[in-house]
Amino acid sequence: MCELSVLVPVRDARAWLPASLRSLWRQSFRDFEVVAVDDGSRDGSAEWLDREAGRETRLRVIHTPARGLPTALATAFAAARADVIARHDADDVSHRERFTLQRAAFRADPALDVLGTRLRLFPDSQVGAGMRRWRSWHDALLTHEAMEREALIDSPLAHGTLMARRAALERAGGWIERGWAEDVDLWLRLFRDGARFAKLPRVLYGWRRHAASATHRDPRYRPAAYRALRLAALRSGFLAHRRDVMLVAVGATLEHWRRSLEEDGCRVSTRSFGRPSAAALATLSPPLVLAFGARPARERWRAALVKHGWNELSQFIFTG
């Protein structure tokens, strides 16, 4: 049995597959298999994968109808043979030392369950200001605590950088189709189940940006789906068994979250504060939901609340 299984879902990625898989075959760590699930490709990806499997014995190819990314990942996970699982996307590239360094981190820390890395976005022409801000935020979240407290803002761990113990993934239920971002959904279940996260402070993954990528065209990653995911996560986590909640936000964000929480059965007390003045803080009580997408706003509020003795994730939580 190999030491590592790498899950690669594929949908119409023929243009990028050669470079993507070449970055895997060049890894300095070599005891791994690649489980590629072709999810109904129509651009020649399936045929290319079959030819590549004839040349490279570490590649196993599974062909399925087009059922979507979460189901393709669940299929690959079920077929994987190793006790440690990694992710890699068919249009991305991994640094040749990625698997070596991630495996070393797992050996050094038996309590570690989930490990990511910093990443680069390419090509520059396809990377807008918003994604540059996201990468800066993502790469600053290196510890379990930092990732957990920001988990309702966006994905605190880039999906393609994942390496995880199979047992932790199985306890959390693996990849599930729920109509929203399957990676954030999985991270939240892993956090709930007590899995320990970390992120290596090295850039070991390249995320290719292009107009045909799932983040651009798949409705699972649209704002409405993210809002539904955040609400469900609050309901099952921070607000479980709590119906009275105080909400801090401004403008349209305040109105959206007030309406969503009330429709979900909460009794909501709102505070329209942009900054954490002493007067504002004096009016607050837990459980407190703060809806601020801007990183500087969250940092101001977090510093003020912690200074006043509040405990994050038990008394207050941030959401996007």
From TrEMBL:
Keyword terms, alphabetized: Glycosyltransferase, Transferase
InterPro entries linked to this entry: Glyco_trans_2-like (IPR001173), Glycosyltransf_2 (IPR050834), Nucleotide-diphossugar_trans (IPR029044)
Residues in Glycosyltransferase 2-like domain copies: 5-170
Keyword Thylakoid found: no
Signal peptide location: none
GO molecular function, one term: glycosyltransferase activity
Family: Belongs to the glycosyltransferase 2 family.
PANTHER family named among the record's database cross-references: GLYCOSYLTRANSFERASE, GLYCOSYLTRANSFERASE EPSE-RELATED
Name of the protein in question: Glycosyltransferase
Species the sequence originates in: Eiseniibacteriota bacterium
